């Protein structure tokens, strides 16, 4: 008899993974997220939260709750993730069956088997420790599942680690039963820890007690203690203790000792040798109960109907975790600096769609830390929410909100104007607009209108938006209608918007096209190498045409150029401006460097920029610097 319930679980899991991987092929707007329901990532990230008060990568309550639910399942029911859900377990189990069919598979020698099992506890400790100390999921560097579903094409993957893990997973499964699961899987190690629920639970309670009593221990002690419990339980005893409650039981009165159950156990457990299976590898898959030719000989706790317990419990636990996650949200980061002033206030901003992970959260924190009066920030990547803590005697809530906003400009197109055609100007407030994602959506929305040639935004409530358009092609009323449309087609996909215009705005202009180009130019200014220590008269300025400075999205390249220029300690500032044409300007100390050196740096084939205080990288120079416009002593 076939174990259909388990087969359905396994094939459904693999089917969903294949769907997520294949969907981008027919839906170019879909971004595959293979970590969205990763329980091990959630558990690793929880240790990062304990240690750094920061969730790892894009981990959130969903992954954490799934991890907790599955560990709870281990303690009371069995290793349900391993038996019914794990994609690596499913594939290696099938590969093992193939290896046995072609007589490739052999049994690992007993002594080697015992000691090899310790490897997964070492890997568990290293993986979680590295994650909890820098809030980046170390498991992604080697995880064969993550490597396979991403086609080994992901910046988090370390190719040597991933290839080695994949070879061990596939090759090991063909030649040795469930090689990855038994000897290398960190999630399997996590699960086995809680098969000694009394010891693991006691350690967790003692750790919590030290925290509550005001003597918190570093989380590494909790991690190390749990890993040691799992290691001793598995390598020393190879059995579970007290829990889980359900176990495979054998009726010795009706058993014919045919060993059919031994031959069909995916884990290779000798079931016929014991009336009750407590082996550490048993994951309550119940294949043996289904395969046994004698009815009611192999059961779960001597009750035949309990063979449905594992799949039912897996469903309940997963559903409960997903529902619970809807009501729980962990802070992605929670940082405080500059003490806790008596007049601390909190500003909350929702709809920050640019806050998506640990990296974007830390980038925001770095910006806020430089603002007087702001003393801390919490971010919630899942709901795109930010809480900012500030000293109300130094800075107002409105100024805090303004600090989150970046004024921007965007030229949408360069029209061929006839006979000096004027440019219309519409100043209008836009509600429902706040961050860089909103700016991108506004650009897409206005870009659909051929007569709109550019726009700029400034902080306000509502946001002050200046739209430049051709009066010969559309009217201010047309623009207002577009702004209130409620959706945008971004790369062909409908995206719902919350933009609203509370008034009709102010029609200005018209202005000349040359004035528009000056207004829309987004200047750049970066000072370094002690610029503030100089008097203006001490510096020389090298000015030159720089056509690329007017291109949208050029700021990153300008940052690289500024970093490249800063390698010369005599160069102290780099700016761009518009003077009929886009111009660049490099300020330098003539006592430390020369104009020739500046020109050489600007025209180098590669830009060498700093990625840390001491490390550099190089990229091809994207700029084509023209002849100098002027070189003058300031």
How would you describe this protein?
- The protein has 634 residues and is an alpha+beta fold.
- The protein has five domains: 4-48 and 56-237, no CATH class; 248-311, Alpha-Beta Plaits (2-Layer Sandwich), CATH 3.30.70; 333-404, Alpha-Beta Plaits, CATH 3.30.70.100; 408-520, Alpha-Beta Plaits (2-Layer Sandwich); 524-633.
- 41% of the residues lie in helices and 17% in strands.
- The protein has 23 helices and 20 strands.
- The strands form six sheets. A five-stranded antiparallel sheet has the order 7-9-10-8-13.
- α7 crosses α11 (186-193) and α7 (118-134) runs antiparallel to α13 (219-237).
- The radius of gyration is 32 Å and the shape is elongated.
- The mean pLDDT is 92.
How big is the Rg? 32 Å
Secondary structure: helix percent? 40-55%
Distance between the termini: 90 Å
Annotation field: number of helices: 23
The structure class reads alpha+beta
Number of domains: 5
- The geometry reads as elongated
Strand order of the largest sheet: 7-9-10-8-13
How many strand segments? 20
| Low-confidence sequence ranges | none
Biggest sheet layout: 5 strands, antiparallel
Strand content: 15-25%
Average pLDDT score: 92
Q: How would you describe this structure in keywords?
A:
634 residues, alpha+beta, Alpha-Beta Plaits, 5 domains, 5-stranded antiparallel beta sheet, 20 strands, 41% helix
Question: Layout of SSEs?
Answer:
Elements: H1 4-26, H2 39-52, H3 61-76, H4 80-85, H5 87-101, H6 110-116, H7 118-134, H8 144-149, H9 159-175, H10 179-183, H11 186-193, H12 197-212, H13 219-237, E1 248-250, H14 260-264, H15 287-291, E2 298-300, H16 309-325, E3 333-336, E4 344-349, H17 358-368, E5 374-380, E6 385-391, H18 397-404, E7 408-411, E8 423-430, H19 436-447, E9 452-458, E10 463-469, H20 476-483, E11 487-490, E12 493-496, E13 506-511, H21 513-520, E14 524-527, E15 540-545, H22 555-565, E16 571-578, E17 582-588, H23 595-602, E18 606-610, E19 616-620, E20 630-633
Antiparallel strand pairs: 1-2, 3-5, 4-6, 5-6, 7-9, 8-10, 8-13, 9-10, 11-12, 14-16, 15-17, 15-20, 16-17, 18-19
């Amino acid at each position: 008899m076939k174990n259909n319930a388990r087969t359905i679980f396994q094939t459904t899991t693999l089917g969903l993974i294949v769907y997520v991987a294949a969907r981008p092929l027919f839906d170019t707007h879909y971004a595959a997220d293979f970590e969205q329901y990763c329980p091990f990532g959630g558990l690793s990230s929880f240790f990062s939260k304990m240690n750094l008060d920061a969730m790892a990568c894009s981990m959130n309550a969903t992954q954490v709750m799934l991890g907790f639910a599955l560990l709870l399942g281990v303690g009371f029911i069995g290793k349900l993730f391993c038996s019914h859900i794990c994609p690596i377990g499913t594939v290696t189990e099938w590969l093992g069956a193939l290896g046995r069919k072609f007589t490739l598979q052999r049994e690992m020698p007993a002594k080697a088997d015992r000691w090899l099992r310790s490897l997964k506890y070492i890997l568990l400790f290293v993986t979680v420790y590295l994650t909890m100390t820098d809030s980046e999921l170390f498991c992604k560097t080697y995880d064969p599942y993550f490597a396979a579903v991403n086609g080994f094409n992901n910046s988090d993957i370390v190719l040597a680690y991933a290839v080695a893990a994949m070879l061990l997973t596939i090759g090991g499964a063909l030649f040795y039963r469930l090689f990855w699961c038994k000897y290398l899987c960190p999630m399997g190690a996590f699960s086995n820890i809680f098969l000694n629920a009394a010891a693991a639970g006691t350690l967790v309670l003692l750790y919590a007690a030290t925290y509550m009593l005001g003597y918190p221990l570093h989380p590494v002690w909790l991690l190390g203690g749990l890993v040691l419990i799992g290691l001793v339980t598995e390598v020393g005893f190879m059995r579970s203790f007290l829990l889980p409650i359900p176990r495979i039981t054998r009726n010795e009165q009706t058993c014919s000792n045919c060993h059919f159950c031994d031959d069909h156990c995916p884990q290779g457990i000798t079931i016929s040798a014991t009336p009750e299976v407590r082996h550490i590898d048993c994951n309550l898959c119940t294949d043996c109960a289904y395969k046994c030719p004698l009815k009611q000989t192999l059961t779960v706790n001597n009750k035949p109907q309990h063979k449905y317990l594992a799949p039912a419990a897996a469903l309940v636990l997963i559903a409960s975790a997903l529902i619970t996650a809807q009501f729980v949200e962990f802070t992605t980061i929670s940082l405080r600096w500059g003490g806790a002033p008596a007049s601390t206030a909190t500003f909350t901003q929702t709809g920050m769609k640019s806050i998506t992970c640990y990296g974007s959260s830390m980038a925001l924190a770095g910006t806020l830390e430089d603002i007087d009066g702001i003393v801390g920030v919490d971010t919630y990547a899942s709901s795109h929410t930010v809480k900012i803590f500030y000293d109300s005697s130094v800075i107002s809530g409105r100024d805090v909100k303004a600090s989150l906003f970046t004024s921007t400009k965007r030229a949408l197109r360069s029209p061929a104007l006839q006979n000096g055609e004027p440019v219309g100007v519409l100043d209008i407030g836009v509600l429902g607009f706040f961050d860089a994602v909103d700016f991108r959506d506004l650009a897409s929305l206005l870009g659909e209108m051929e007569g709109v040639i550019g726009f700029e935004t400034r902080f306000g409530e509502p946001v002050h938006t200046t739209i430049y358009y051709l009066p010969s092609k559309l009217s201010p009323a047309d623009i207002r209608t577009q702004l209130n449309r409620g959706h945008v087609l971004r790369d062909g996909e409908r995206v719902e918007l919350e933009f609203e215009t509370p008034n009709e705005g102010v029609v200005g202009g018209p202005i000349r096209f040359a004035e528009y180009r000056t207004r829309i130019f987004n200047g750049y200014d970066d000072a370094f190498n002690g610029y503030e220590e100089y008097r203006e008269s001490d510096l020389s300025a090298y000015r030159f045409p720089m056509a690329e400075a007017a291109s949208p999205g050029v700021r990153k390249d300008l940052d690289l150029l500024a970093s490249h220029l800063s390698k010369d300690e005599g160069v102290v500032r780099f700016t761009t401006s518009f003077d009929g044409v886009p111009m660049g300007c490099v300020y330098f100390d003539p006592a430390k460097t020369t104009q020739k050196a500046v020109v050489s740096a600007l025209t180098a084939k590669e830009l060498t920029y700093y990625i840390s205080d001491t490390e550099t990288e190089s990229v091809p120079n994207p700029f084509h610097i023209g002849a100098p416009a002027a070189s003058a002593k300031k």
